[in-house]
Each structure stands twice: as structure tokens, then as C-alpha cells.
């Protein structure tokens, strides 16, 4: 039977769309490219959702008002963001948790020592995999049909209107469609095409690792952009790109491969030289710039260097660091030029100015007369043993996507599609032109997944798409008419 709403994708945004459409009374078919065991895309590797709130709320402490959230986003994107859509996401983040709970998502109480994160981010109990599993259970209980191992190979469009999707030799028609199939981060050929050859004659993308799913090949994205002429947003080289352990697997390394001690020490390239301010801002706001910084270095590799003072102050990675009792011995073990490395560390140590070290605030421990400076948390690396962690760029998701508006409709030749909507990574570039701040990807996916699903159901019923207000109306109706609780 032809569904009212076809959802292409199987992660957070796709599931939010499917649930919202089904709650609105539409029949829904969801196509997930991955096998059931690997369902959920990059959402399986997530941990939290960035949330606006004006006062303490359940698992959130203190307050994180709209303007502060917006300023944080403005800073990391350098202004490359659509303010109207960004503020839509921010406002939506304030009230989405009750809906998430109704679909079986549980949140973790604030942990001791992590209160500065609990002010801005709500953490999922059991992480992203538990969230994804809860949504699938709820979707199946509500009657959403799910097909696994069902990658879409081709899309049929007619004048900006969705007609059909081709999957495993089958032509699937639907009244409306939500595309939430992720970016192209797993497509190494496309990454190579986007990054090309640098001034050193290197092909940087050949050294990239993929933090998340191997199934985000960008087939649907490329089809809509290059074949059907959907309006685009974002730079194909911009991505959520983190500096991760160089020993991580090619795909699906996830959060545990991240190296979180960068702000507690220094980072050098293969010449043994520093290249950026390691103490620029709090780690949750700055961790996602380091993948791109390392990607710009020779060989697309770097090393995070700390001493024993830093141990116990960061989330330990899955692999132990290289350890030595002297800096020359550490350089030798890491394969770095010993004299240059030691000189870099000596120059840094000499430039550190005394202050009151406090990793929970922007403290006054800084360097003086050093380029690049380290503006916070600068302490001499002088207490053995010393540790080194090799870093490579780890791509989480790409920012090239479909241009949209506050109805989540895809756009063709200046007009909104009447029945094709977009959510998640496929449109995140509207809000994230560059940079990242922890948890905002889930905020974007949840907001636009829910808007896309609600509007797909409305369009299938012959009603005009609505904005965030329409979503809230649909949610209130669902709360009154479809009260269901999942253990």
C-alpha cells in the first residue's frame, strides 16, 4: 500500500519525522539503509542534546537562555548561519524533552564534576543507541512500517514535487516524503573530490577517519542536488570534524576515540611545532574545530602532548597514550624531530605565566610572548611522565545540504516543494556553516525532524505546511488523544 509519508533515513531526525507523522494520523514507511543491528546512523554515537532553558529544569541546572545559546552558535559558526532557523532550533530545544520521554527516551541526572555541561546539555541515559532503540520501539508500536537494508538508489521528482523512490529494484510512491538520510561523510570518493589536492600535493581526505556510520554515502543528497537541482547550502569541505586517536577504526569509532586532553597541554604537528591556541575556549565549544585544524597540517596528523598533571582531568581515550620519562624520549617514540620538539616545549614552558589553574572556568593561566598563544589553562609541561596521543581528522557529518525554511520544505528554483521535506544532516548546513558546539546536531535533527514529519502529514492530508506553531498544535493534539508510555 502507498504510504501517506515515506521517510528516507533511520537516525534521530528520520525517527522524529516518522513519529510525528504517525501521531498526526498519517501512514508511514521508513527506509533504513543499514541492517537492523547498525540502525540509527550517527545518532547511535551521540550522547546529548543542547537545550535552552530560562531556569533549572529536571536534568538541567541553572539557566541557559536563548541569547546565550545563540551567541555560542554565532561564535563557533563565525556568522555562517541562518539566524531565523537557528533561533527556531534554539526555541524548540526548550520544550522537546517531554515529547521525547513519551517515546521512551530517558535522561541522565547531572553528574558530579560535569555541572558546567549539565547547564547546557541534557544527556541520554544509555547514550544515543538507547535513544534510537526507544524511538524504533515507539514507532513500531504506533504502526510505522520499517524496512532495513533498504538504501534508496534514485528519487523521482516532477517540478519540485516528490513522486517516487527506487529501492532494491522497487518503485515506492508516497503522497509526501521526508529525506533524512544523512550527509556524505562515509563516501570517501566524494570527500576526496571536495577536498582535492592541497598546496603540498597531498590529498587530505585520504587520511580522514569516519567517526560514525559507514552507511551515509550521500546518494539521496547528490541525486537531489545534482540531478533534480534542489537549492543547496553549505561548503562541501565543512563538517563536524574532530581530532581523534589516529589508531581509531575507519568507521564507527564513535565518541571513545576522541582525544579530550587538548586543552590541558599542547598540540604539535609532524615538524614538532604548535599551530593553534589549545586554550581558546571551553572544550565542548571547541573540540570540533580540531579535526579541521589537523587536516590542514602536513600529513593530516598531529600529537596532543600532556604531562602527569593532566591525568584524571579528562575523559580517558580507549587507547593508552605513548609514555616517556623525558621529552626527548617521548619525541623519539612518537617519531618527531627531537630538537625541534624539545625547543617547542621549552619555548611554551618559558612563556607560561603563573595563575590560578581551574579547568572549569576561563582561568588566568596563559602564555605571554608566544605565537600562537595559549590563552587559558597554560601550565608548563614539566612533570614526568609525559604522554603523547597521535591525532587524525575524524569526520562526523558533512555540512553540504539542501536549503530549507521554517517549514522544513526542500526548495527548488526559489520555491518550496509542496511534498518533499528535509531534516537532520541533510539540512544542518542551514544552521551550521562551519564549526560546532556539543549537542547542537541533535537539537537540529530533533527540531527539523519533528517539523518535517508534522508538515509531511499535513501535506498528505491536503493541508498547507505550517511552522513551529503548527508542530506545537500537533503535539498538543497527540498528547490529548494518543497518551502512551513506554517503559
TrEMBL record:
Pfam families linked to this entry: FAD_binding_2
Keyword annotations of the record: FAD, Flavoprotein, Oxidoreductase
Cofactor(s) needed for function: FAD
Ranges in a coiled coil: none
Start and end residues of each FAD-dependent oxidoreductase 2 FAD-binding domain: 4-431
Domain of life, source organism: Bacteria
Name of the molecule in the record: Tricarballylate dehydrogenase
Organism in which the protein naturally occurs: Pseudorhodoferax aquiterrae
Lineage: Bacteria, Pseudomonadati, Pseudomonadota, Betaproteobacteria, Burkholderiales
